[in-house]
Amino acid sequence: MDMYKAEEVADIVELRLDYIHNLDLGRLLAHKPLPVIATCRPVDEGGRFSGDQSSRLRLLRDACRLGVDFVDIELKAWSGFNRQGRTKRIISYHNFKETPVNLEDIGKRLDNTDADIIKLATMANSISDNLAIFNLLKKSQRPTIALCMGEEGLISRILTPKFGSFLTFASLSEGKESAPGQIPATELKSLYRFDEINEETEIYGVIGNPIAHSMSPAIHNAAFGRLGLNKIYLPFKVEEVVEFIEAFKAIGVKGYSVTIPHKERVLAALDEVDELAQKIGAVNTVVERGDRLFGYNTDSSAAISSLARALGESSKRTALSGKRAVVLGAGGAARAIVFGLSQCGAKVTIFNRTVERAKRLAEEVGAKWGALSDVSKTKMDILVNATSVGMYPEIDETPVKKEVFRPGLIVFDMVYNPLETRLLREAKGAGCRCITGLAMFVEQAKEQFELWTAKKAPARLMREVVLKRLGT
Ligand code: NAP
pTM of the full predicted structure? Predict the structure, then answer.
């Protein structure tokens, strides 16, 4: 039975009586393995109970009589529900549409009840809605559960121990959520190291959109855990990066990774940007030092290091100086490697679907440029794919025809999902030396970690985490 399974991952179990068919409360509560919250949510409060109010309250009174530890009763209904024996009352407010601007007033109304614990659960329509919840928790004088629902509200479910929420809710497994945005308790504990979060925990995270499938939380949380650091890394689904960074200064975020589509726009939110990142025009790492925000680009050095390493050279310049390098693409990743290659003295030619973009980038670094269809006419030692062609789920696509390949050519695909792209498969078949995007991905994360912590990153662990996530 689910209640017994919950014992392995939870401290308290919420029994959603409105979800249970053929309810036999006496049997259910006779051998409860954990403290129990009894909840029976009516349809108009987001639950499934469609009976009348008096039978709903009767059910909750029965649960109290049978010894549940807590009973959850809505703000609208609490005045008709007196204290029942030793059962503690959670008086709650839910809003499935939004996090209302008058949240503090609602908090005060809850505070004016004789609740043992107050609860507010509101829908986050933007990541900033979480700040209202954190603010309320900080000010609250009595035991409070406060969280945002929905994908944008995930961080409020994770950070509850930092801001002093009485508890957080997690599902027993995927598909068993009782509210939008819940994640399984095992994920909360293993991926986000929930049990180790406290008031002192420092916050880091990745800013992007979409962000749900980012591997960065898994990599950095595992690395923080390995080094025993009191730090947590979160996914931030963000629409407007400058506003977001400004607003989140209120909770003192110590560092960010920045991904598509914010790498360029984020520069406007920073106090200082490292020289190379400035030239590239893109930042993928933000570090907070004494209230000032510094921007770096670890994609560039990571791409160049993984190329040099594959060439068997410890010096990037020795490895790449004078080499004829063809770069496919003119987006953020292409800019990062093109500037790195030029700095190392490589002779770069850029090909892109939108030729005008290739031309603009080439003119910035003194490189040559052309259309993707011209790649086969070019002599080269290294071919780099910095387009997103071939990336999951479009795994049968490739940016160039296989006629381009010849034995000994070095082919580096920045795409790392899948690890072996069609481009690399065809290049390998033609006798090329192939480099996957994995080494670069791990390297850029490792450099970020070291910028944030000034400690050596556990690179092997980070690589294992990515490989596990990629299912290899
Ligand atoms: P981006 O800024 O959006 O640029 C995408 C590039 O791909 C542009 O040059 C675009 O050409 C080209 N492109 C997209 N669809 C195409 C198509 N159907 N045919 C031809 N060209 C196409 O993205 P990004 O940040 O540079 O990322 C590019 C790739 O690098 C992604 O797969 C990303 O995952 C990978 N990456 C890997 C790492 C790593 O650590 N391994 C790090 C960063 C990025 P147009 O200019 O014509 O639109």
Answer: 0.92
